[in-house]
């Protein structure tokens, strides 16, 4: 739980019983005059409204983030395929780099969660270890790069960029992205794993899901004809 969420929880737990206590005291103390009593009640209701407005503001922040991501989903969530013919490949080498642009395996042994969907149902295997004996003979590589699309005071949009590349010629056979936006406590996704429409992180399979494996499998087939 981040500091903002923890602070909201504390405010709610303190403000609600405190306001109820003030209402009880208003009856016990028997404030003289209708005006004084009304002012006391308004103060109590105001104390209750503070945490409620904070919660509503955070919910609106998350909804604004989803709306902000929508046009980016239309631009990036649909992958591009460029192969001129069918490609036969038994294995694909994972080429992942850290934000510092240094060669790094995404996860030391098992690879990223989506890697487990390779090597089944006719899909090529994913070679995670660059020192693997098959790595030098693999003709294809799956490049994975994480980039920040843009960031401001309210939102941060991050993209995981995938490219299926012919290692011999450097030809890009397919390109696709998984995007997500952080807006306060909310996170929304779209892309080759989550789909072309905006979904909440609880409804997105990312970072698992078979979307990356399906993207690679489709990239081995001829590109669709353009109208």
Question: What does it look like?
Answer:
By secondary structure, the chain is an alpha+beta fold. It folds into two domains: 3-61; 75-219, no CATH class. Helices cover 35% and strands 26% of the residues. It has helices spanning 3-29, 34-76, 211-219; strands at residues 80-81, 91-96, 125-127, 140-151, 156-166, 172-183, 186-191, 195-200. Helix 1 (3-29) packs antiparallel against helix 2 (34-76). The protein is elongated, with a radius of gyration of 26 Å. The model is unreliable at 1-7 and 99-109 (pLDDT under 50).
- Total DSSP helices: 3
Q: Report the mean per-residue pLDDT as an integer.
A: 78
Task: Please tell me the total number of domains.
Answer: 2
Radius of gyration: 26 Å
Features:
single chain, 227 residues, alpha+beta, 2 domains, eight-stranded mixed β-sheet, 3 helices, elongated, disordered N terminus
């Amino acid at each position: 739980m981040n500091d903002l969420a923890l602070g909201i929880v504390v405010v709610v737990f303190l403000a609600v019983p405190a306001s109820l206590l003030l209402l009880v005291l208003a009856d016990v103390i028997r404030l003289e005059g209708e005006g004084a009593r009304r002012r006391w009640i308004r103060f109590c209701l105001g104390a209750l409204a503070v945490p409620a407005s904070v919660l509503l503001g955070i919910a609106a922040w998350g909804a604004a983030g989803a709306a902000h991501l929508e046009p980016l989903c239309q631009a990036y969530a649909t992958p591009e395929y460029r192969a001129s013919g069918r490609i036969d490949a038994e294995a694909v080498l994972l080429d992942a780099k850290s934000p510092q642009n240094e060669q790094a395996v995404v996860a030391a042994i098992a690879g990223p969660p989506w890697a487990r969907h390779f090597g089944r149902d006719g899909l090529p295997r994913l070679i995670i270890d660059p020192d693997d004996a098959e790595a030098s003979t693999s003709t294809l590589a799956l490049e994975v790069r994480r980039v920040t699309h843009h960031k401001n005071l309210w939102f941060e949009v991050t993209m995981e960029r995938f490219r299926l590349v012919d290692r011999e010629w450097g030809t890009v056979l397919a390109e696709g992205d998984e995007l997500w936006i952080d807006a306060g406590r909310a996170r929304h996704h779209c892309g080759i794993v989550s789909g072309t429409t905006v979904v909440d992180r609880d409804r997105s399979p990312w970072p698992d899901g078979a979307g990356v494996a399906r993207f690679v499998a489709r990239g081995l087939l001829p590109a669709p004809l353009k109208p």
